[in-house]
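FAQ
Q: What does a multi-component entry look like?
A: The components come first, one per line:
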Amino acid sequence: MPYKLYYWDGIPGRGEFVRLALEEAGADYVDVAREPKGTSAMLKLMEDAAGATIPFAPPFLMDGELLISHVANILFYLGPKLGLAPDEEGLRFVANGLQLTITDFVAEIHDTHHPIGVSLYYEEQKPESLRRSADFLSERLPKFLGYFERVLNQNPMGRGHAVGGRPSYVDLSLFQVIEGLRYSFPRAMDSYEARIPALIALHDAVASRPRIRKYLTSDRRLSFNESCVFRHYPELDRQS
Amino acid sequence: MPYKLYYWDGIPGRGEFVRLALEEAGADYVDVAREPKGTSAMLKLMEDAAGATIPFAPPFLMDGELLISHVANILFYLGPKLGLAPDEEGLRFVANGLQLTITDFVAEIHDTHHPIGVSLYYEEQKPESLRRSADFLSERLPKFLGYFERVLNQNPMGRGHAVGGRPSYVDLSLFQVIEGLRYSFPRAMDSYEARIPALIALHDAVASRPRIRKYLTSDRRLSFNESCVFRHYPELDRQS
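Then the predicted structure of the entire assembly, as tokens:
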């Protein structure tokens, strides 16, 4: 039975971190909300007054009867099944810790254009977004990217992977973060990338993996746009 | 060998979600940063240029040589060992999904007083905090608390627990969220609590568990204060 992934149609967003793992593994899955009537099926599950396990928000995954929510949780569950987690149990928790740092980073990237509230439009919180983005680019972007660069450089199994000696879902997620940041903050990234050579090498290695390369040119890969976590508002970008 | 918990001294903060689980289980642990020279030991681990696994931020846990970071990850790891996770493997991922929703909720609570940047003082982002808190109290607080109330009411094993039929670390964390919200937003909670009877009943049941009751009156339990995630700024509070 195929995995069923539920996520908002039309944006890569947080669902993309799960898609990349499924695609790299060549797993059998359905991207439910992109099917006819898929979005209403997703909302029905979320609002189900009899559901034993209800998600707070997409993305969530169904594997048979089991409903699993949150990106890092889905990847922790899928990783070993897809061959994209370390074999050693302890390192699986290390991978999950890294993925949760990516989760926090993505939330902060989101809040550069939504510092006041998700129920408001960007245009309703633009002065605050300008201020938050300036802080993000000067303080947070270097802190997070510098951390992941250190993680790669200090991996005892080599700087080619975030954890262990072979590709994991964490590597795929780091690829996606770099992709998203290049879309959102091209000027900042242009001046910052020289400082994170290991991360950029990892990004390029992921992009050239056969299944990922094929996926990236397929119509399953959605483009970034201004409804996504990663948005390009030129006024929020600057050299870092 | 005792577990070693690393978290900033002087605040309950995010470390408290881990402490509650360790205390409920009567586990042998050291709260490292509260020991003499503990904070410098913690910083040394974080800055270790040779560390194979490095945390982005506290809290983190050491179990022997294994370093595990992020609250939800630590609890996912400890839960089964402490008898505070469901027996069924699938339900452990459900528990983790709930804990990650608590993580997101706590991050949003934090951002009510830090909507622009963590490197700035509250006083440097007060107008933005007023606006973000108003949105939080009208939109986000009801959404999160309403969700957890639904989770309790729809638990097939009964509304006394968030997941499964006996206490888990998720129940302990929900207790702490209610404690923190009562400290931070007493007016908003005073008017809102009537709408979440199952959550309040869970809070009270956790508070009266023998080990928790003893812990709450010990000097190991730190008071909320304005260096914590949960802060009381009366100007940010209002009836919800």
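Q: Is there any commentary attached?
A: Sometimes. For this entry: Chain A has nine helices and four strands.
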